[in-house]
From TrEMBL:
Organism (species): Mytilus coruscus
Domain of life: Eukaryota
The protein, known as: Ankyrin repeat protein
Database matches in PANTHER family: ANKYRIN REPEAT-CONTAINING PROTEIN
Signal peptide: none
Length: 210
């Protein structure tokens, strides 16, 4: 069942459910696998034919963000009570895996689902940042070594939401010289603890950064 859900084979999913005792399946895991795939049909069919209490919708959302299945992310937000999801964790997963499109969409549209998409874009600057842990999101973006996401976060939000000293330390510790250079070129160097940054570079055995 898990393989059928992840391999986007709805006919097989239906056949298994029709021909075997459903107690043989772990429906939570099946839904999670469907969330990792690009097949919205399976996600829809499972939610329409089973009591949703069988599923762990928060994990389904996290998996969809983690794998950048934006179509599934949108559908979940439009069809379920958003309180079922942990949006802080969802956006952190998008950052962690370097999923720029999912990150941008969440930032621009979450809490604006009832609006026309163009109106949602216009209201993007007004969404409640408290829904997200921006420091953790930034740290995950560093770990993914995706400079585009880092730039997006810094451009979109008040930089006071981030710990720039920690950002520099992470960049040095993760051997990301391009990010180190970019930070030094674009921010007041007084925001950084250069002693700590150098120590992190030493610990990572990154001679180029040192």
């Amino acid at each position: 069942m898990n393989n059928a859900c992840q391999s986007e084979n709805l006919d097989t999913v239906k056949w298994l459910i029709e021909n075997f005792d459903n107690k043989l399946f772990d429906m939570k895991e099946a839904m999670n696998n469907a969330g990792r795939s690009e097949n919205l049909d399976i996600v829809e069919w499972l939610t329409e034919n089973f009591d949703n209490e069988f599923f762990y919708m928060k994990e389904t959302m996290n998996n969809a963000c983690f794998m950048e299945k934006l179509m599934i992310v949108k559908w979940l937000l439009e069809n379920f009570d958003n309180e079922l999801f942990d949006m802080k964790e969802a956006i952190n997963n998008a950052c962690l895996m370097g999923k720029l499109y999912t990150l941008k969409w969440l930032i621009e549209n979450f809490n604006n689902i009832l609006f026309d998409i163009r109106e949602a874009m216009n209201k993007a600057e007004k969404f409640d940042n408290k829904l997200f842990d921006m420091k953790e999101a930034m740290n995950n973006a560093w770990e993914s070594e995706n400079l585009d996401i880092v730039k997006c976060l810094l451009k979109k939000f008040d930089n006071k939401l981030f710990d720039m000293m920690e950002a520099m330390n992470n960049a040095c510790g993760l051997r990301n010289l391009d990010v180190v250079k970019w930070l030094i070129e674009h921010f007041d160097n007084k925001l950084f603890d250069m002693k700590e940054a150098l120590n992190n570079a030493w610990e990572s055995e990154n001679l180029d950064t040192v």
